[in-house]
Amino acid sequence: MTTVKIKMPLIPAEQKFCTKGNDSSLDLKAICIFAAAGFFLGEDTYYRNLKALQPATEYEFDDNNEHVSESTYWKWHHTPSEMALQDAVDEFAHLFEKITSRLLGSCNVILPLSGGLDSRTQAAVLKDPGMVHSYSYRFEDSFDETKYGEEIAKIRGFRFSSYVIPRGYLWKRLEQISGINKCYADFTHPRQMAHIEELSTLGDIFYLGHWGDVLFDDMGLPESLSFDEQVTALQKKIVKRGGTELANSLWKAWGIEGTFEDHLKNRLAGLLAEIKIENVNARIRAFKSMYWAPRWTSANMSAFSSFKPVAIPYYDEEMCRFICTVPEELLAGRKIQIEYIKKISPELASVAWQDYDPLNLYNYGKFESPSMLPYRALRKGKNIVKRNLFGRKLVTRNWEIQFCGEENDRQLRERLFGGKSFSGFIPSDIVKSFYDKFKQEDDVKYSHPVSMLLTLSEFCRMNLN
């Protein structure tokens, strides 16, 4: 018998699946967790016998593509070396430059730019500005956040394009997106789909900064947390607003024994216990890298990779191994990335950091000082203001561009209430209840449940008709 082996990366950029067993029924418990969190945990999929291949695992299949064996070849750990901040920055600089060079080669680069740190770090490392075409986008009827990317591009000498994400773009793209991500993530996050064909013509490869904010920061948790407290903190991190309420409704409607909360807690505890790391923040980072990145971030990333190859330096194996050696105090507060940008390109460090605008990487620490009170008040005022000069609601969140407004609402209702097969999968009264709560009670809280119901509706259209 000949066999085929598949070796999964430490953080897979692409989801792959295999069949285990003969029970092809829907995995309702897994779908409840998906409804609450927005991604499946571990091996889980929509079906009991369809399993997602796991990170850092080598699989063996026979001639009939049947699963034979699997073994984990690497585990996340926390083995910090004695190093000063500057030592960590120097090592990161060497590693980041090497990884970038290896991933990009001589390709013409498509670089998304924002007001954050990850894309700015990427902008700093690129050596040949003539081979880079950068871009940013903003929502229609929203604040113009492309200014950060444009300023960064100007400093580095990159070509730059600015795009507007129009209201209601989702409905023309829905079948395309669901065909790409197979309904393993919702449809509100891959905003680039509004202009993906045009973006794909800008170069040969997308250079993406995903997961830098997770690897190069702490998780904001005290080291005194007990294991049970870690599970509780993890649950709060992964479950979206309104998610538990939706999952509970599905759990009861499907007549599943026990409670959803107990099942989720036990599932998280089991997965977390397998990570043999004492440091709380390093342990939670490892969990997110093993289970969140491959099943949510990578699922959304398929909106890029379906059109052009992607290069993701923070997913790289060498980067993951490096992170395991860095003391937590050096990762906290994004110190390494900040110092790297200041070292490589002081001009880039002088551009306003969006989270602390108008302050930059040199003075952002003053943001909470009394002298900044007028600026903070102005920022808060902008977030509170909900109408612009034309009387239209300002768009500040992903779901608003897709769900708010008369035409968006018509399209949403058509997909939530227009299919008999969906009502056979999820009772109509549950769908109506969450739709009404979104429209009448709290659109922020119930935007996630509505988005997940839309995702499940599209899954039903694709697979259960």
Structural domain tally: 3
Residue stretches low in confidence (pLDDT < 50, at least 5 long) are 386-390
Share of residues in strands: 5-15%
Fourth CATH level, the homologous superfamily of the largest domain: HUPs
* Largest β sheet strand count, sense and barrel closure: 5 strands, parallel
Q: What's the rounded overall pLDDT mean?
A: 93
**CATH class category of the largest domain:** Alpha Beta
Quote the distance from N terminus to C terminus: 38 Å
E-strand count: 10
Going by helix content, strand content and strand pairing, the class is alpha/beta
For the largest sheet, list the strands in their spatial order: 8-7-6-9-10
Supply the number of helical segments.
21
Helix share, percent = 40-55%
Shape: globular
CATH topology of the largest domain: Rossmann fold
Q: Over the alpha carbons, how many angstroms does the gyration radius reach?
A: 23 Å
CATH architecture of the largest domain: 3-Layer(aba) Sandwich
Textual characterization of the structure:
The protein is an alpha/beta fold and about 475 residues long. The protein folds into three domains: about 5-70, no CATH class; about 85-215 and about 290-375, Rossmann fold; about 405-465, no CATH class. Helices cover about 50% and strands about 10% of the residues. It has helices spanning about 30-35, 85-105, 120-125, 145-155, 170-180, 195-200, 210-215, 225-240, 245-255, 260-275, 280-305, 315-325, 330, 335-345, 345-350, 375-385, 400-405, 405-415, 420-425, 430-440, 445-465; strands spanning about 5, 15-20, 50, 55-60, 65-70, 110, 130-140, 160-165, 205, 310. The strands form three sheets. It has a five-stranded parallel β-sheet. The protein has a three-stranded antiparallel β-sheet with strand order 1-4-5, with no helix packed on it. It has a two-stranded antiparallel ribbon with strand order 2-3. Helix 3 links the parallel strand 6 (about 110) and strand 7. Helix 20 packs antiparallel against helix 21 (about 445-465). The chain starts with a strand and ends with a helix. About 40% of the residues are buried. Mean pLDDT is about 95; it is low at about 385-390.
